[in-house]
Amino acid sequence: MAYTSSLHLSKHLLLPKPHRARPSSSRSPSFVRAARAVNGAPHVNGHSKKAPNGKVQINGAGADGKKGPGVINGKTHVNGHDRIHLSVTTGGGGQDGTGLRVAYQGAPGAYSEFAAKTALPGCETVPCRAFADTLAAVDRGLVHRAILPVESTMEGTALRNYDLLLRHDLVVAQEINLFVHYCLLAMPGVRATEVRRVISHPMALAHCGRALARLGVDREPVEDTAGAVEMLRSNMMLDTAAIASPRAADLYGLDVLAHGLQDESWNVTRFLLLSKPPSPVPVPVDADAKTSMVVAHRGGSMAVVLKVLSAFSSRNINMSKLEVINNEGGVGEPRPPVMILDTGARGAPTLRAFPHVLYVDCEGAADDPLVREAIKEIEKFAVFVRVLGCYAADTNVYDLQ
C-alpha cells in the first residue's frame, strides 16, 4: 500500500519557550498597515457580487483590493494567525541579499519570485522553466540560491519539491511563508462579463474552484501563474483572464477584475531557499533555529515513526513537521522509490533508493547537544539519515499586497 501522511503540530501544542527580543536592524522589515474590515466584520469566502464598474467582488474582496479581516497593530488576523503586510522593498529574515542571484521557477511575476524578493530584497532573480532547472543552476554555480515552494495550507506537501531537493547536494539556508492572494487579471478595458475562459497553473485553478464555478467560465491549465499572464498579454486575449498575483497585474499592465479568488481565506505557501553546503547564512545567536532532516528506512514504518518521536520527545525537543512517505506500492499501485543523494558516501556522492522516508523539522540547531544526541539515536535504527539544513525559523506570514 502506498500512502503519504503528514503531521504538522499546532504551535499551542508545542513546548513553551522563553521570548527573546531581537535587536533592531536597518534591514528589518518595514510594515505597511493593511486595510481594515468594513464595519469591523471580516469578509471571507463571501458570495460574488457585481460592482457598478462591472468588476467582480469574490470572497469578500473587491477590485479595489479592500480585504475583510480586521487589523490590529498593523497585522491582519485571519483564522487566529497574524499576516504581515509588506511594502515592495521589504524583506524577511534580516538579509538584504545584494549581489546574490536566486533562481526560481516560472516567468517574471511568479509567486516564487516575490517570495525570493521578500526574503532577499536586494537579490537578482533568475527565471527557470522547471523546478529541477533551479537546482541545477545552483549545482553549476550559475546562481547562489534556488527557491522552492514545498508546502501549502491547501495542498499540504503535494508540492513534491522535497523529492527534488533530496537528489542534490544542497542545504536549506532560509525559509519564508507567503500568503498567496489570487487575483483575476484581464487585458485593460475587459469586463468580467466578457470573460469566457480562465488560464493559470493547475494548482491555482484548483485553489479557486468555487469562485470560477460561480463565474461560469472554462478553465485551461498552463505552466505557471506568471506564464499565464505573459501569454494573456502577448496574445492580446480579450475573452480570457488569468489567475495570478496583484503584483503580476502591475508588472504586465493588466486590470484586476477580482481579488481573493482562493476558496479558503487562509492560503499560505512555505518556500525554502537552497544553497551549496555549507550554509552561507549563519543562524543568529538570538534567533530560534530549525533543523530539517530526512530519515530513510526499508520496513516497519510505524515502529520507526514511534522511535523518531521518542528520540525528540525524551529530550523535550519540539517537532514542527513530521511527514511519512511510504512508496512500497501494492498490487495495481506501483510507485517509484524515493531517491536520496548520499553525500557522505565514499568517493563520489551516490543516489540511493528507499521505499520509506520521513521528513522531519525540529526546533533547535543541528549542533545543539540535545539535537545532536537525538540524531545519533535515530542513526542507530534508521538505514540512512541526512540533515537537509539548519536555519533561522521564521514563523511570520508575509503578504505581498
UniProtKB/TrEMBL annotation:
<keyword id="KW-0456">Lyase</keyword>
<dbReference type="InterPro" id="IPR001086">
    <property type="entry name" value="Preph_deHydtase"/>
</dbReference>
<feature type="region of interest" description="Disordered">
    <location>
        <begin position="1"/>
        <end position="29"/>
    </location>
</feature>
<dbReference type="InterPro" id="IPR018528">
    <property type="entry name" value="Preph_deHydtase_CS"/>
</dbReference>
<dbReference type="GO" id="GO:0004664">
    <property type="term" value="F:prephenate dehydratase activity"/>
</dbReference>
<protein>
    <submittedName>
        <fullName>Predicted protein</fullName>
    </submittedName>
</protein>
<feature type="compositionally biased region" description="Low complexity">
    <location>
        <begin position="1"/>
        <end position="16"/>
    </location>
</feature>
<feature type="region of interest" description="Disordered">
    <location>
        <begin position="42"/>
        <end position="69"/>
    </location>
</feature>
<keyword id="KW-0028">Amino-acid biosynthesis</keyword>
<dbReference type="GO" id="GO:0009094">
    <property type="term" value="P:L-phenylalanine biosynthetic process"/>
</dbReference>
<comment type="pathway">
    <text>Amino-acid biosynthesis.</text>
</comment>
<feature type="domain" description="Prephenate dehydratase">
    <location>
        <begin position="101"/>
        <end position="276"/>
    </location>
</feature>
<keyword id="KW-0584">Phenylalanine biosynthesis</keyword>
<dbReference type="Pfam" id="PF00800">
    <property type="entry name" value="PDT"/>
</dbReference>
<keyword id="KW-0057">Aromatic amino acid biosynthesis</keyword>
<dbReference type="InterPro" id="IPR045865">
    <property type="entry name" value="ACT-like_dom_sf"/>
</dbReference>
